[in-house]
Amino acid sequence: MCLETLQNVYYCYGEDKEKLIEEAKEMLRTLESELKGKRFFGGEGIGFLDIAANFIAFWVGAFLNK
């Protein structure tokens, strides 16, 4: 869901874009809180969620540069 929201931010404008940005920020805060000082979501080893989060990081950069 986070990736879809970030993609929609890239293609929206105005008030819709601002609403989606706030939604994305909240989702990213949730992901960040799950790390809780760990290197990876699973603890000390890389897992599926870490790989999926990498794709989210790509879209964050894409919508920040637009």
TrEMBL record:
Name assigned to this protein: Glutathione S-transferase C-terminal domain-containing protein
The Glutathione S-transferase C-terminal domain, residue ranges: 16-62
Alphabetical keyword list: Membrane, Transmembrane, Transmembrane helix
A Pfam family of this chain: GST_C
InterPro entries in UniProt: Glutathione-S-Trfase_C_sf, GST_C
TM region(s), chain numbering: 45-64
